[in-house]
Design a protein that fits this description.
The complex is a heterodimer of chains A (about 140) and B (about 350). Chain A is built from five helices and five strands. By secondary structure, chain A is of the alpha/beta class. Chain B is of the alpha/beta class. In chain B, strands 7-5-8-4-9-10-11 form a seven-stranded parallel sheet, sandwiched between helices. In chain B, helix 1 packs across helix 3. The N terminus of chain B is likely disordered. The chains are: A alpha/beta (about 140), B alpha/beta (about 350).
Chain lengths: ~140, ~350
C-alpha cells in the first residue's frame, strides 16, 4: 500500500527563568522553512516539557538557554524523559549561550547535540541525521 | 515491514533522500486497549499515524470506533489574532473547575512554500499542560483547506476514546469560507473582535451564517458595542421559524479571563437546545457521513497510488499522446480494473 510522506515534529521550549526569546523564535522559523512542524511552547518546567512532548508525539525536543542552569535543569529534563519512557526514542538538543566546557556533560546527560552559535544548515542537518538514527536504532532494537 | 512480536514499522519517505521509520504502530487492537485505559502516549502515537494516514492507524480506528461518540465537540474559529487560543485556554480552566476532562485540538497552517509549520496555539494554553485531565494536541493543516487538518475527525475520536468529556477544536485563523469546523463540531463558536469590518462584512456568506455562538473578544476596545449592534441587526434579518436557535452574543476579554463563565453557559444552552430539538443527532449523522466519505476517499487514494507502478499507466499515457484514447475513457478502464482488485483484496481478508 502506498506510503505517504511524514514530517519531523520538533518541540521548542525554554526553561522557566529564560527571558530572551529571539533565539528560539529564529530557530523555529528556520525549522519551519526546512519543512518541519514546530510546536512552540515558550517557558516551562522540565517535567511539563516532557509531558508536552508525549502529547505532541514530538521526534525532537529543543531547548533554548541563555541564563544558565542548563546542567541542573537539563538533568531534570532527562530524568523525566527516562521516567516517562521517551528518552531513547526522542532526540534532545540544546542551544544558546552557555559555558563551552559544559558540552561534554550535556552529552553525557543524553543530549544528542548542543549548539553555541550555529547556522541554519548545521541545525537542520543535525536534526535530520539524529532523527534518522533514532528511528533506525529503534527498528533494529525491536527486530 | 513486519518484525517479530507483532510490531509493524512503517517506512515513510521523509524527503527524496532520507528515509525514516515513523511511529511504530502496534497492531491487533494494542493501541485501542491502551487508549481506553487512558494511555496518553498511545493516543499521541495513533494521532501521528492518522496525520500520516498510515494503513495501520486507519485499521486501528476500526477497533477504536465503537468506543466513541460520548464527548461533546466545540469548535472555536475566527480571524488570526482574535484570541481563539487564549479563549480556549480560559474554557479549559472553566471546564476543569466543573470536573470535566478536556481534549484540545489546535490547528495551525502548513506553509504552502516549504511544507513546514509553526504550531503556536499551545503556548497560550501551556498552564494546563501538566493537568492529567487535559490532553492538548497541535495539528498542521498539511495542505488540507477548510480551516482544519485532514485528520481532525479521527483525532476527535481518539480523544473521545481516551475519555475526554469535552473536545475543543481550534481552527486555523480564518474568517470567511473555512467552514469545515461546523461539520466537525456540535457547537461552533465564532470569535470576532472590534475594528475588523462594517455591517457589509457581517452580511457576507460564510462562517457567520454557521455560527451557533458569537464571541466579541477584546470587548474593552472601542467599537465592541457597535459590532454587537451590527451582529444583532444581521441576526434579525435572518428568517426565523419557531424553535430555531437564536445565536447568542457573548462579550469577552480573554486576556483577563473575563466572560469565560458566560461563554461556557452559552455553549451548554446550545447543547440543551440541540438535544431538545433532536438537532444533535442530526448534526452527528452529518458528521458520520463526512467521516465515511473521507475514509472512502483515503482508502481509494491508496489504490490509485498503487496503480502508478511498473508501466501500467505508461501504456495509457502513450495511447493518450497518440490520440488513441481520452482521459475519461482511460479512467473508466482503470477503475474497472481497480474494482476487480478491490474485490480480490477483500476476499483475501
Amino acid at each position: 500500500m502506498a506510503q505517504r510522506k511524514s514530517k519531523i515534529k520538533v518541540l521548542l521550549a525554554q526553561f522557566p527563568l529564560e527571558s530572551h526569546n529571539r533565539g528560539i523564535i529564529t530557530v523555529a522559523g528556520m525549522l519551519k522553512d526546512a519543512g518541519m512542524e514546530v510546536v512552540l511552547i515558550g517557558n516551562d518546567l522540565p517535567e511539563r516539557i516532557i509531558e508536552t512532548a508525549i502529547q505532541e508525539d514530538a521526534d525532537v525536543v529543543g531547548i533554548s538557554t541563555y541564563c544558565g542552569g542548563e546542567l541542573a535543569l537539563g538533568a531534570d529534563l532527562m530524568k523525566s524523559a527516562a521516567e516517562k519512557g521517551i528518552k531513547e526514542s526522542t532526540v534532545f538538543l540544546l542551544g544558546g549561550i552557555f559555558p563551552p566546557h559544559n558540552m561534554a556533560r550535556l552529552k553525557e546527560l543524553g543530549f544528542s547535540a548542543t549548539f553555541l552559535a550555529a547556522d541554519r544548515a548545521e541545525i537542520v542537518s543535525c536534526i535530520q541525521k539524529a532523527v534518522a538514527e533514532k528511528k533506525s536504532s529503534a527498528q533494529s532494537g525491536a527486530a | 515491514m513486519i518484525c517479530p512480536g507483532g510490531v509493524v514499522y512503517n517506512l515513510i519517505c521523509l524527503s527524496p533522500t532520507v528515509i525514516v521509520v515513523r511511529a511504530k504502530i502496534e497492531t491487533k487492537m494494542g493501541l485501542t486497549k491502551k487508549i481506553l485505559a487512558g494511555d496518553v502516549s498511545a493516543a499521541a502515537r495513533l494521532i501521528s499515524g492518522l496525520e500520516d494516514e498510515t494503513p495501520d492507524a486507519l485499521d486501528e480506528m476500526s477497533h477504536l470506533y465503537p468506543h466513541t461518540g460520548k464527548a461533546y465537540v466545540v469548535g472555536i474559529t475566527g480571524s488570526p489574532g482574535a484570541g481563539k487560543s487564549t479563549l480556549t485556554s480560559n474554557l479549559i480552566g472553566h471546564f476543569r473547575t466543573q470536573a470535566m476532562t478536556v481534549g484540545v485540538i489546535a490547528v495551525d497552517p502548513t506553509s504552502a512554500f516549504t511544507g513546514g509549520a509553526i504550531l503556536g496555539d499551545r503556548i497560550r494554553m501551556q498552564e494546563h499542560g501538566a493537568d492529567k485531565g487535559v490532553f492538548i494536541r497541535s495539528l498542521a493543516t498539511r495542505g488540507w483547506v477548510g480551516g482544519l487538518a485532514r485528520a481532525t475527525l479521527g483525532v476527535i475520536r481518539v480523544m473521545d476514546a481516551l475519555g475526554k468529556d469535552i473536545i475543543l477544536v481550534e481552527t486555523v485563523g480564518s474568517g470567511q469560507i473555512e467552514i469545515d469546523i461546523t461539520r466537525a463540531a456540535d457547537s461552533t463558536v465564532v470569535v470576532l473582535m472590534p475594528g475588523a469590518g462594517d455591517e457589509i462584512q457581517m452580511m457576507k456568506a460564510g462562517i457567520l451564517e454557521a455560527a451557533d455562538i458569537f464571541v466579541i473578544n477584546k470587548a474593552d476596545r472601542g467599537g465592541a458595542d457597535a459590532l454587537k449592534t451590527n451582529l444583532e441587526t444581521m441576526l434579525m434579518m435572518k428568517t426565523q421559524s419557531a424553535g430555531t436557535w437564536q445565536p447568542g452574543i457573548v462579550l469577552t476579554e480573554a486576556i483577563y479571563d473575563r466572560g469565560t463563565v458566560e461563554l461556557a453557559a452559552e455553549i451548554f444552552r446550545h447543547r440543551e437546545h440541540l438535544t431538545a430539538h433532536g438537532e444533535l443527532a442530526k448534526r452527528r449523522k452529518a458528521r458520520v457521513k463526512l467521516e465515511l466519505m473521507e475514509t472512502l476517499e483515503s482508502y481509494l487514494k491508496d489504490y490509485i497510488h498503487d496503480i502508478d507502478k511498473g508501466d501500467y499507466l505508461e501504456n495509457f499515457v502513450d495511447a493518450l499522446s497518440e490520440g488513441k484514447t481520452d482521459p475519461l475513457s482511460a479512467t473508466r478502464e482503470i477503475t474497472s480494473r481497480l474494482a476487480g482488485d478491490l474485490c480480490r483484496r477483500h476476499d483475501d481478508k
